[in-house]
Amino acid sequence: MLLSLSKFSLVFAVTAALGLDQAACGLARALATQKKPATAPVTGRDLKSYYSRRAFLGAPPVIAHEIDPDMQSDLGDCLVCHESGEGDAPVTPHPQFLSCRQCHVPMNQEKLFKDIDWKSVSPPKLHKRMLPGSPPPMPHQLRGRESCLACHDGPAAVREIRTPHPERTSCPQCHVEVETEKAWERSGES
Amino acid sequence: MKKMNRREFLKKMAAASAVTAAAGLSPEISFAGWSPLKVLPGQVKWKKTPCRFCGVGCGLLVGIAKGRAVAVKGDPASPVNRGLCCVKGYHSIQALYGKDRLTYAWVRKNGKLVKTPIQEALNIIARKMQETIQSHGKDSVAMYGSGQWTIPDGYVASKFMKGAIGTNNIEANARLCMASAVTGFMTSFGADEPMGCYEDIDHADVFIIWGNNMAEMHPVLFSRLLEKRAKNPNVKIIDLSTRTTRTSIASDKSILFKPQTDLAIANAICHEIVKNGRVNSTFLQKHCSFKKGKTQIGYGLEDKFKFQDSPEDSSFEEYKSFLEDYAPEKAEKLTGVSAEEIRFLASLYGDPARKVMSLWCMGMNQHTRGTWVNNLVYNIHLLVGKISTPGNSPFSLTGQPSACGTVREVGTLTNRLPHGVVTDEGARKLAAEIWKVPVERIPAKPTFHTVEMFRALDRGEIRFMWIQVSNPMVSMPNLRRYRDGAKKEGRFIVVSDVYPTPTTDIADVILPSAMWIEREGMFGNSERRTQHFEKMIDPPGQAMSDTWQIIEVARRMGFKELFPWDEKTHIEQIWNEYTRFHANSKHALASYDELKKSTGVIWPYVNGKETKWRYNPKFDPAAKQGDGFDFYGTTNHRACIWLRPFEPAAESPNEAFPFWLNTGRVLEHWHTGSLTRRIPILHRAVPKSYVELHPQDAKRLGIKNGNRVKLTSRRGSLALSASVNKKGRPAEGQVFVPFFDEDYLINELTLDAYCPISAQPDYKKCAVRVESV
User: Fold this and answer.
1) 3-class secondary structure, B109
2) Which of A49, A77, A96 sits opposite B28 (nearest CB)?
3) Looking at B58, B86, B178, B755, which residue is catalytic?
4) Are B331 and B264 in contact (CB under 8 A)?
């Protein structure tokens, strides 16, 4: 675990170092995270556990803890921990939705009813920059994830995708959604 | 202060549960996971479709890559769900990939099911159908379809049975879920389906939910209610129910009533509205008439039960004296709802400053007086004139994705044709003309509604039954009788489905069906919205769409000229033929091309415009222009207020069977679970059935959560584990069991009593004994 973490931090540091146009504080933070793991307790989630709770990229994650009383575990009760990240609770990127159990369900048993032949697209590669130092695009849609910092900052942020510059609040200024992998081609007459 | 305490409590709870979770099921367990396709997220193609599951009809975008469905997101362009889905919708595509998908046909030979090429299976079906007709007559063959049939499936099925073979032996499982809604609309307004649409939610101030756990059954619409309330604190949500559910908890007020007494509550509300001068007299005088029908109408428990109502004209004066029996204090004793609460409800409906939406589904429809209780809720809206305007809307919600679009609009029921009823000569002539068949071939007499159809199979009048997209060997009430009947010697059962089920277990031929986006089709949702989906991926193995299965069999039986369509374009051609039935301003449907490019179109669709509020000339071109409304479904252009009394349920608890048994769905599973149990996240959330008890009853009987409990009715018994204060809490003296689990067939206990007018069974009320085992 520590090994993989420091490897990621190294990637972070290298990419951050290449980001010559980045503000110094961002770089400083990235370097600070690089030093942390060896001593500081491990907090937050890693990508592996992040994906393990989802059926595909963009699927609502399963609830990974017990809920009781079941009937009442809705309507803002979830937000007591998941709005601001109480303890290690992941922060919801969409606090405007109140009927949490509409999309998120607990896991009461592991065994399946019948096996399933399920495939989906590979997770996106990290730090996929177009140019050295340029801001990486967003590999997912923004709908339902209006709050970027929910996953990219805070105690429960996903380690590998933690932003080095949480103080910059206007994320879409630099990071854009990938709509297509195709390059633009002129459709008119040449 | 109280809120702080609750927050603190929850935080403590969360900390405690994190520990127990760590000790038990590790949250770090590699749970979902997927085999990665070598495709980048940006290479996925997104295509629109309505969701496969409930009648809300959410717009989905399905991600397609390498010939497979790989992801789902809510379609932001859909006016239904505006980009949000529920957990079933998000994971719906996983139901395509269960490893036990039916990919080829099976035919029973010498008692054993044998793998058979589909073309040969289709030959066997055609031959068997012809032989049965020859030896037992046309009315010995039957088709049983579904509110999950696409519109083209239902259309070819109706044309095949009524136009080609010439029998009215066609029914669909929507009889079990929407028939009372239909007869309610027909008797009150003379035309089926809601006058309003989901946009009413954006305009209403008060939402009164009648016997529907909307938070679980129509979750996406329910979250629209919550969103509306969050923006406007004056908005009120009232839950009228027999069981405390998530909907009750989320509501501003939860009112519990005794089973069956919704009839009395509705009349008591009207009593108060009249007494307090809250009647909209102008509306009443211009747009309403009064009627009464037969009373003590029975429960349909006897074979060959027949009922015919004989409506008589009534008057406001007679109506007022009829309501005297429902003064709030009298109603309180019967219903268990306090007079104060009844007055509160009446004040909400009667307040001229508030726009009111009533919402309901199975609680009111699966009811031995289902037609009546639908009528009675319309009465309330008519008395105060709160109807057919934005936000004033009695809204009957649908269970299945195309109960409206297919079963109700195409009319895949014994008494119906794609336009009108079989008893109407004009409707038969129109069908004969469009189908190009002699009018005499379409029988003028309805045969069997669903319950009676399965009884006829048991009795031997029906010898051949073809079941598509339905699982009646889990979902029929009084199940044992109908399963034993279907298994009798000399019965031949064909089942088209996508997975093995208890219904395929009793089949003589199983046909593998192409499911949902493996073929092209249309669904029609609760708000009259028709939605098209294209074929996005290939079906597995030899699986074939239900539409094409019927066409293949019809052609083999010599009806090629009625089904001349090309395999590539048949859905478009079927749509063009079908829409001729509704080519009028009261029901006009959008063209094939318009459906293909839109996120659904609400009918009547006239001159390129949807009709969002029917009967209101401001919105509805079919309504006569004027300053009021035009309820053009009835001959006098008036909506009907019915004098319908309270009558008891078919079977009520007594000393030997002291508990009410209520059955229903859960958010995580779709109907009989044959699809959703194969979706990992859904099965893992609710892996098996259970019985919910009230904590006091549980305590008295010495039952704790998870203990085995045996339920016994006059028809059978079943042991399941107890659930106390979990998903729902029945009132004292009641138990609730979901019906999704084929290993716990609760319908072996339920009663096949039905509403005599709609013939829809009541799955919500029968009597059981409860024992700890």
Assistant:
1) strand
2) A49
3) B178
4) yes
Evaluate whether B44-96 and B659-750 have a shared fold. Answer: no
At position B70, the amino acid (one-letter code) is V
A to B CB pairs, distance under 8 Å: 234
**pLDDT (tens digit per residue) in B551-592:** 999 999 999 999 999 999 999 999 999 999 999 999 999 999
Domain B196-297+315-398+633-643 has CATH 3.40.228.10: yes
Q: Do the chains contact at A59 and B72, CB–CB below 8 Å?
A: yes
Question: Does A84 touch chain B if contact means CB atoms closer than 8 Å?
Answer: no
Biggest alpha carbon–alpha carbon distance for chain B: 79
CATH of B105-177+402-517+537-564, one of 3.90.1750.10, 3.40.50.740, 3.40.718.10, 3.90.550.10: 3.40.50.740
A189 touches chain B (CB under 8 A): no
CB proximity A94 to B under 8 Å: no
Cβ B35–A119 below 8 Å, yes or no?
Answer: yes
Point out the residue among A66, A117, A181 whose CB comes nearest to the CB of B20: A66
Set of chain A residues whose Cβ sits within 8 Å of the Cβ of B223: 97-99, 102
| Structure tokens belonging to residue B535 | 């074929």
Cβ-defined contact of B7 to A80 (cutoff 8 Å) = yes
- Give catalytic status of residue B755 as yes or no: no
**C-alpha closest to that of A4 among A150, A126, A121, A90:** A126
Residue B643 and residue B292 in contact, taking contact as beta carbons nearer than 8 Å: yes
**Predicted ipTM of the assembly:** 0.89
Q: Write the CB contacts of B714 (distance below 8 Å, at least 6 apart in sequence).
A: B651, B657, B767
Q: Select from B765, B763, B646, B757 the least CA-distant residue to B184.
A: B757
Q: What is the pTM of this model?
A: 0.92
Q: Is the peptide bond before A69 cis (omega within 30 degrees of 0)?
A: yes
* A77 vs B10, B63, B727: nearest CB: B10
CB B87 to CB A103 under 8 A? Answer: yes
Q: Which entry of B94, B148, B260, B400 is annotated as an active-site residue? A: B400
Tokens for B98, please give them. Answer: 């269960």
For residues B598 and A135, give the distance between their C-alpha atoms in angstroms, rounded to a whole number. Answer: 36
As a whole number of angstroms, the distance between CA B314 and CA B311 comes to 9
Contact with chain B for residue A177, Cβ under 8 A: no
By the 8 A CB rule, do B290 and B641 touch? yes
CB–CB contact A74 B222 (8 Å): no
Give the model's pLDDT for residue B15: 58
Region B659-750: CATH code: 2.40.40.20
Tokens of B391: 């936000």
In B117-249, where do the E strands start and end? Answer: 141-145, 170-172, 206-210, 236-241, 243-244
Spell out the residues 6+ positions from residue B673 whose beta carbon is closer than 8 angstroms to its own: B740, B741, B742
Report CB contact under 8 Å: A121, B39. Answer: yes
Note if B362 is an active site residue: yes
Which CATH code fits B44-96?
3.30.200.210
Burial of B369 (0-12, 13-18, 19+ CB in 10 A): buried
Structural contact between residues B200 and B394, judged by C-beta atoms closer than 8 angstroms? no
How do the domains of chain B map onto residue ranges?
44-96, 105-177+402-517+537-564, 196-297+315-398+633-643, 659-750
* CA-to-CA dists, residue B659 to B135, B456, B746, angstroms: 47, 31, 15
CA atoms of B748 and B719, how far apart (whole Å): 12
pLDDT tens per residue across all 190 residues of chain A: 333 333 333 333 333 333 333 333 333 333 334 433 334 445 678 888 888 899 998 899 999 888 866 666 556 788 888 888 877 789 998 888 888 999 999 998 999 999 999 999 888 877 777 788 888 888 887 877 888 888 898 888 888 889 989 888 788 888 988 777 778 888 876 5
